[in-house]
Amino acid sequence: MTQFKGSITALVTPFKNGAVDERAFQDMVERQITAGTHGLVPVGTTGESATLSDEEHERVISLCVEVAGGRVPVIGGAGSNETAYAIDMAQRIEKIGVDAILAVTGYYNRPSQAGLLAHYTALHDATDIPIILYNIPARTVVGLARDTMATLSKLERIVGVKDATGDLARVAVQRRECASDFTQLSGEDMTAVGFNAMGGVGCISVSSNVAPDLCAHMQDACLNDDYVTARALQDRLAPLHDALFSDASPGPVKYALSLMGLCTDELRLPMVAPNDASKAKVRAALEELGLIG
User: Fold this and answer.
1) Looking at the chain, which terminus has fewer C-beta neighbours within 10 angstroms, N or C?
2) Neighbours of 18 (CB within 10 A)
3) How many other CB atoms are there within 10 angstroms of residue 26's CB atom?
């Protein structure tokens, strides 16, 4: 089974005049792979999945799979707060050729732990490729309890979690309670090195959209237990991490990419451009890293 580890980029979806900018997206995917990124996540939260039509959703994932060409794994976003829809989308992107599915907990509905267990079990039973759980209670209100995650980790194709709780103590406990081969990936750039030190093996990263080489180098250092190098790189990247979450994501990261000439900063409502203070932080972080003049 494919290994999911290292620097995995939560790709933005670039727009131009209201439509997906396919050329810019393909160029971004190639840039990521050339820079050493270990995996790609198209149409996750950072990819503005909530604003894409089903046709756009499938098209963006198809473009990513096509450009990646098997060089790195592609983890397609297929989460929903409706189980039947999540299954349908997962089955469709499975046919496109993704290596795994990223499935978020049920937002808005606020399901119980029994409901989450039933949801993910149904998704597991209806698909044939690996599933990575996405635990982000700040956005979904509900989170996966440790015992729920432990139960799900025993299912054959539920292989890991993107943990965006920010609770590093969970990592060690989840290592004890989940299946021995269960993969823990950070969903938070600022604490990614600490997450790995506690037992994680990578990060599904927003910052790697902007600085893929540095993020990949940092994750390689963690995988090699070289935390002196990893900490030094994290220190360099910290202002970027801070800037990219200084307003509602993905506004700041799209603004950063626009300053670098990689895509427009266009968003879809209800997302709007970051505020002026956030823009100033983004520009300063890019200048400090030498990414713009």
Assistant:
1) C
2) 7
3) 15
DSSP conformation letters of 8-53: EEE----EETTEE-HHHHHHHHHHHHHTT--EEETTSTTTTGGGS-
Q: What is the pLDDT of residues 203-220, one digit of tens each?
A: 999 999 999 999 999 999
Residues 6+ apart with CB under 8 A from 155: 120, 121, 124
Q: CB neighbours (10 Å) of residue 37?
A: 26
Digit-coded pLDDT (tens) for 242-274:
999 999 999 999 999 999 999 999 999 999 999
Residue 122: exposure state from Cβ atoms within 10 A (0-12, 13-18, ≥19): middle
Task: Indicate the pairing of strand 75-77 with strand 158-163.
Answer: unpaired
Contacts of 215 (CB under 8 A, 6+ apart): 7, 9, 37, 203, 205, 207, 208, 237
Tokens of 185: 């990936």
Task: Report d(CA 275, CA 145) in Å as an integer.
Answer: 35
Residues that are catalytic: 134, 162
pTM score of the predicted model: 0.97
Q: Which ranges constitute the DSSP H helices of 167-226? A: 169-177, 192-197, 212-223
The amino acid present at 93, given as its one-letter code, is I
Task: Please give the Cα distance from 106 to 271 (Å, whole number).
Answer: 21
Distinct helix (H) and strand (E) counts, the chain: 12, 10
Q: Are 4 and 159 in contact (CB under 8 A)?
A: yes
